[in-house]
Every structure is written in C-alpha cells, then in structure tokens.
Amino acid sequence: MIDSLDDMLPLVDENGNLTGAATRRECHGGSRLLHPVVHLHVFNTAGDVYLQKRPEWKDIQPGKWDTACGGHVDLGENVEQALRREVREELGITDYEPRRIAQYVYDSQRERELVFVHTAVYDRPIRPDTTELAGGRFWSRQEIGESLGKGIFTPNFESEWCDIVLPSLS
Fold this sequence. Notes:
By secondary structure, the chain is an alpha+beta fold.
C-alpha cells in the first residue's frame, strides 16, 4: 500500500484550529504547512514499549523504527477519531484507553506537524497490518537507550521519547 499524495489533510495553527487544507504532497513536499498528526506509545505492564517498523515505500523515514502508531488526522476528523482509526488500522487494537500526554510542533526541513502524543498500556497480542507497516515488536527501555543516535529510529521518535515520553513516566 502506498499513501496517496493527493489525500487532503487539514491545516491548523499551533493551537490546533483549522486554517485550511492541502494535499499530502504539499504538506510533505517542503512547504512546511502545519498539519495535525496523532501518536500512540503502547506499553505493556512490564514497561516495554511497542515500536513499528516503517515500510520502505513510505515517503518520510522509510525503514526506520518509530512510535507504535502514528498517522495524519484526516480532513473532517478530530484528534480522538484519528487516533482510534489509526490504531485500529495499523495495530488492530480497539480495546485500549489512551491518555494524552503532550502536544507540540515537530519541525523539520521537509514538514511541520502538530503532534498529539498519547500513551496506553496493552498486554494482548498486537497484530500489525502488513499493508501499513513492515512489522513491530516490544523494546525494553534499555534496548532503546542503547540504540538512540544510531540511525535505527526516526528522529521524531528519538526526540519525542527523550523529551516527552520518558519524563512523563517518572
């Protein structure tokens, strides 16, 4: 499966207020138009965190390990609807209780995203959709710590993990 570059995405201000719409191609093509995305960090009760492997066909960070679930808010959706849809599509999970822990602007040379960060605890099997992801598995905090800065993870995951998720766990 390849993301359609013609999909319409909402444009927002830094508070999440709708300001317009643009295609995925425009949002990811260097325009740096601010568009909303959702992230879910899935932990098991042992404290390990599930990460997804991004497929090679992705236009952003192909082949890297990333947040358990992440995706765009579609035009006409709210954050909660987008999170439920993305988690169901990517991980096959519907019975979880997300907790929003942060919202921030991710800024790269190629794009700007208003990221809504959530966590959840989930101990049942996770079955990643192989048309959306190249797999996934639970990582210990030690494994993640040993792999940071080595090009294994997306830069977005690394900064979010270190600056938002880990501090929220203490």
